[in-house]
Amino acid sequence: MHDMQHLNFEVKARTNNHAVIRKWLMDNGADMRGIDVQTDTYFNLPEDRGRLKLRQGNIEHNLIHYHRSDNAEARVSDVALSPVTDTGTLKNLLTRALGIKVEVLKKREIYYIENVKFHLDELDGLGYFVEIEAIATNVEMPVEYLESQCRHYMQAFMIRPEDIMADSYSDMLLQQ
């Protein structure tokens, strides 16, 4: 995914089935990219300006800006990201300019099947989650197709509607 701006459709759900989901992914030819220990620092932005976060991990190091609908069922995001080489310096600069809203610490297993990215997440203080993120690899890919991909994998992982989380991890932490 070299295009720095894209649309994605994602589903995040609480789960206690990491082992079952991991096995399903491996049995179905998923590409395991590794385990990332990530710190996501969210900076203060006006509500109407979306969200800005700096991801510091051993696999992913990106500055990410996104707008997302807060509808639990239709989590469509307009995402822009830029790889960062010196995350420490950038974090200091953004902290100085904007201030930190919240920090999210997680251990994340990353898998891919074609244009769909899967995260098995373990979060300090929040528990275990699975994320299914269908990424539009070109502008021709309709949101409906991305949504149908997510629904397919939700069924495969036996995710129930009540397991789906509308809030981002940052929101959950802020609500604690």
Describe the fold and architecture.
The protein is an alpha+beta fold and 176 residues long. It has a single domain, classed as Hypothetical Protein Pfu-838710-001 (Beta Barrel). Helices cover 24% and strands 43% of the residues. The protein has an eight-stranded antiparallel β-barrel with strand order 1-5-4-3-2-6-7-8, surrounded by four helices. The longest helix has 14 residues.
Key traits:
single chain, 176 residues, 24% helix
| Widest β-sheet, arrangement of strands | 1-5-4-3-2-6-7-8
Determine the CATH topology: Hypothetical Protein Pfu-838710-001
Q: Helix tally?
A: 4
Q: Assign the CATH architecture.
A: Beta Barrel
Compressed to H and E, one letter per element, the order equals EHEEEEHEEEHH
Q: What sort of overall outline do the alpha carbons produce when their principal axes are compared?
A: globular
Main sheet makeup: 8 strands, antiparallel, barrel
Query: What is the number of independent domains?
Result: 1
Average pLDDT, all residues: 91
Q: Which structural class matches the secondary elements?
A: alpha+beta
Strand content: 35-45%
Helix-strand layout with pairing:
Blueprint lengths: L4 E10 L3 H10 L3 E13 L7 E6 L4 E8 L7 E8 L3 H12 L1 E14 L2 E8 L3 E9 L7 H14 L12 H7 L1
Antiparallel strand pairs: 1-5, 1-8, 2-3, 2-6, 3-4, 4-5, 6-7, 7-8
